[in-house]
Amino acid sequence: METVSLSLWNAPRAEAPVVATVALPGSKSITNRALILAALADGPSTLTGALRSRDTDLMIGALRTLGIGIETAGADTTLRVTPGPVHGGAVDCGLAGTVMRFLPPVAALASGTVHFDGDEQARTRPLDTILDALRGLGADIDGDSLPFTVRGAGSLRGGRVTIDASGSSQFVSGLLLSAAAFDEGVTVHHDGKTVPSMPHIDMTVEMLRESGVEVSTPATGGEADTWRVSPGVVRAVDRAIEPDLSNATAFLAAAAVTGGEVTVPLWPSRTTQPGDAIRDILLAMGADVRLDGANLTVRGPQQLNSIDIDLHDVGELTPTVAALAALAHGPSHLRGIAHLRGHETDRLAALAHEINSLGGNVTETEDGLTIVPADLHGGTWRSYADHRMATAGAIVGLRVDGIRIEDVGTTAKTLPGFENLWATMLSAGAGTERKASF
């Protein structure tokens, strides 16, 4: 079997405090939810500021394959979505969890057979929860993981289903997004440990309501651990997509670890994006964080504080927080994130291994990581085809000479051109602020 050699990227070290303004593209989570809702809507709609990355382009390609019209309107980030009859086809999920979990319910509404597959690494990702749920709602599906096949009958009965969504909030969101098109809508009851990443479910519910869909949640007087979507029309809505706040966290972390100052414009005053939690995290670690109108500015401290934090609801921030903790003063404890073992890779094992391979002191716990700062040295940082692992390595590289990141191109999953944006940030004004004590 041929061995594939992955390129190594020399992560640049910051020789002075980083000072920059970094404009980020649109949110992947919002873009892919908006695409699903637009595909099921009662008429055409326009998405402005949409993210164009591997994950979103896979979603666009999949919906086009199933019969949805999606065209750019001037800029690549402005998409005109025209619903149409959903038919069969072959869907490439890549490594996109939103595609492999949000598209099967749409495929169940198709008039024809839809085949799903993806990258080799994606074939180990858990999908049986949502596929079994769809079977319980009347869908005809072969397989429990990639590759699998959905035999659409043009409609889906829907109804009530009980699932264990403790592995991923995407199981709930995937069922809710298409549920208004089911004959009986859907009632999703969670039976298991606490659902992680609840802000992502809040995002789904808010976007459904913006589209005129009736949704009952535990927070609005519904049954505990239960979400109900009534059958009905999905109204076409023109949406402006917020910047991706989770992608912003690595750039804000650059200010924190170098004692510099980074501003991200167009930060929303109110959002359901989990990435917004980085503000409180960086405050707790000693940074100065200011939201001035629509500009969020982080100014790093002379020395980062350690942190003891439950990241259960914002698990996608774990790689960034782990990188910060590895460069902080004193031991940090990251908790509530056992579910990250089922992400693009086992993120807990990956973070522990990569930091330790550089001389770090990281221990896996039952539901997280304990990180004791140590004198780190250069070496190869593996990305595991995981975009957030790659950006975590770049953060460490700001303070540690000789970090070489394997396959940094995997960042194109959610942030194409990351390397150029990172280099531009470093050259924008480094050294114009006070000296940092590294």
Automatic annotation (TrEMBL):
<protein>
    <recommendedName>
        <fullName>3-phosphoshikimate 1-carboxyvinyltransferase</fullName>
        <ecNumber>2.5.1.19</ecNumber>
    </recommendedName>
</protein>
<comment type="function">
    <text>Catalyzes the transfer of the enolpyruvyl moiety of phosphoenolpyruvate (PEP) to the 5-hydroxyl of shikimate-3-phosphate (S3P) to produce enolpyruvyl shikimate-3-phosphate and inorganic phosphate.</text>
</comment>
<keyword id="KW-0028">Amino-acid biosynthesis</keyword>
<dbReference type="GO" id="GO:0005737">
    <property type="term" value="C:cytoplasm"/>
</dbReference>
<dbReference type="InterPro" id="IPR023193">
    <property type="entry name" value="EPSP_synthase_CS"/>
</dbReference>
<feature type="binding site">
    <location>
        <position position="388"/>
    </location>
    <ligand>
        <name>phosphoenolpyruvate</name>
    </ligand>
</feature>
<feature type="binding site">
    <location>
        <position position="28"/>
    </location>
    <ligand>
        <name>phosphoenolpyruvate</name>
    </ligand>
</feature>
<feature type="binding site">
    <location>
        <position position="33"/>
    </location>
    <ligand>
        <name>3-phosphoshikimate</name>
    </ligand>
</feature>
<feature type="binding site">
    <location>
        <position position="97"/>
    </location>
    <ligand>
        <name>phosphoenolpyruvate</name>
    </ligand>
</feature>
<feature type="binding site">
    <location>
        <position position="170"/>
    </location>
    <ligand>
        <name>phosphoenolpyruvate</name>
    </ligand>
</feature>
<keyword id="KW-0057">Aromatic amino acid biosynthesis</keyword>
<dbReference type="GO" id="GO:0009423">
    <property type="term" value="P:chorismate biosynthetic process"/>
</dbReference>
<dbReference type="GO" id="GO:0009073">
    <property type="term" value="P:aromatic amino acid family biosynthetic process"/>
</dbReference>
<keyword id="KW-0808">Transferase</keyword>
<comment type="pathway">
    <text>Metabolic intermediate biosynthesis; chorismate biosynthesis; chorismate from D-erythrose 4-phosphate and phosphoenolpyruvate: step 6/7.</text>
</comment>
<dbReference type="GO" id="GO:0008652">
    <property type="term" value="P:amino acid biosynthetic process"/>
</dbReference>
<dbReference type="InterPro" id="IPR006264">
    <property type="entry name" value="EPSP_synthase"/>
</dbReference>
<feature type="binding site">
    <location>
        <position position="343"/>
    </location>
    <ligand>
        <name>3-phosphoshikimate</name>
    </ligand>
</feature>
<feature type="active site" description="Proton acceptor">
    <location>
        <position position="316"/>
    </location>
</feature>
<keyword id="KW-0963">Cytoplasm</keyword>
<feature type="binding site">
    <location>
        <position position="316"/>
    </location>
    <ligand>
        <name>3-phosphoshikimate</name>
    </ligand>
</feature>
<dbReference type="InterPro" id="IPR001986">
    <property type="entry name" value="Enolpyruvate_Tfrase_dom"/>
</dbReference>
<feature type="binding site">
    <location>
        <position position="28"/>
    </location>
    <ligand>
        <name>3-phosphoshikimate</name>
    </ligand>
</feature>
<comment type="similarity">
    <text>Belongs to the EPSP synthase family.</text>
</comment>
<dbReference type="InterPro" id="IPR036968">
    <property type="entry name" value="Enolpyruvate_Tfrase_sf"/>
</dbReference>
<feature type="binding site">
    <location>
        <position position="125"/>
    </location>
    <ligand>
        <name>phosphoenolpyruvate</name>
    </ligand>
</feature>
<feature type="binding site">
    <location>
        <position position="197"/>
    </location>
    <ligand>
        <name>3-phosphoshikimate</name>
    </ligand>
</feature>
<feature type="binding site">
    <location>
        <position position="347"/>
    </location>
    <ligand>
        <name>phosphoenolpyruvate</name>
    </ligand>
</feature>
<dbReference type="Pfam" id="PF00275">
    <property type="entry name" value="EPSP_synthase"/>
</dbReference>
<feature type="domain" description="Enolpyruvate transferase">
    <location>
        <begin position="14"/>
        <end position="420"/>
    </location>
</feature>
<feature type="binding site">
    <location>
        <position position="169"/>
    </location>
    <ligand>
        <name>3-phosphoshikimate</name>
    </ligand>
</feature>
<dbReference type="InterPro" id="IPR013792">
    <property type="entry name" value="RNA3'P_cycl/enolpyr_Trfase_a/b"/>
</dbReference>
<comment type="subunit">
    <text>Monomer.</text>
</comment>
<dbReference type="GO" id="GO:0003866">
    <property type="term" value="F:3-phosphoshikimate 1-carboxyvinyltransferase activity"/>
</dbReference>
<feature type="binding site">
    <location>
        <position position="168"/>
    </location>
    <ligand>
        <name>3-phosphoshikimate</name>
    </ligand>
</feature>
<feature type="binding site">
    <location>
        <position position="413"/>
    </location>
    <ligand>
        <name>phosphoenolpyruvate</name>
    </ligand>
</feature>
<feature type="binding site">
    <location>
        <position position="170"/>
    </location>
    <ligand>
        <name>3-phosphoshikimate</name>
    </ligand>
</feature>
<feature type="binding site">
    <location>
        <position position="29"/>
    </location>
    <ligand>
        <name>3-phosphoshikimate</name>
    </ligand>
</feature>
